[in-house]
Amino acid sequence: MSDDTIDVMEGGSVLLLGVSGSVTEECCDTLLDVGPAANRAEIRVNFPADITDRTRLDTGTTGRQPNKHGQITVGDVLRSAESSDPDFDAPVATDIVEDSDNLTEIGTSVSKFCETWSKSDHRIVLCFDSITQLLENSDPEVVFQFLHTLLERLEGVDTISHFHIDPDSHDEQLIATFSSLFDEVVDPNDPGELLDESDLEDETEDTEPSLSDGIPATSGSSQASDDDIADRLNDQPSTQENSTQSRRAATTEATDDDIAEQLDELDSTEPDE
User: Fold this and answer.
1) Less CB within 10 Å around the terminal CB: N or C of the chain?
2) Residue 243 clears pLDDT 90, i.e. is over it
3) Residue 242 Rama label (left phi>0; alpha psi -120 to 50; beta)
4) Shortest CA distance to 185 belongs to which of 12, 35, 9?
């Protein structure tokens, strides 16, 4: 476990080692509960197994109630024909990506939410559930590059993001490789402090910060060496070494067109079935 915390004023990315269970859900809720709710825009990306298995929009039971809520549902074939562009002015905006292996469309949808709500000065938080679902439809190398590009976009608008992965579905080497992309790796069963909200203004003088101790954190940068990543993903070593550092070193924010172009390149690199 690391003593480091993520400064929410600068954004940050977390790999959450869990996809289900009350402890994982509690961690997920806490990672979304950043700063005053009146200024928060929450984005959720989910891969429901069927039409009855959709993420519940927060109804106040968690106390989050963000000002804006975005729901991106991936692989929802039944509703895709009825889908339309998200209404970003509404309290709840929804988007549907029909093909779960269409990384370009997934990334473009997330980017649209980020661009719109960053312009209105919302603090953006994102839950992506899950990387395991991505790996069921695409090769690890392609998913790695997709996440690298997406995390650059999220960092550009200071988004606090966390991505779920099922540690029981993948070997330790793959988990370590993907951990290198993130600022922190969170184990729901290993308590510790994660987020630093000390620079945020409280809504009232008597209100304590919404986040408390009890969220686990381990350093993502120590999970895999450059050699481990190169051995695992030797097709693209130049973009995978020190991936977190390279995102931090970016001097300009990518546009939506840039993101779409990079994601199109990823789709073109996937091997034919």
Assistant:
1) C
2) no
3) left
4) 12
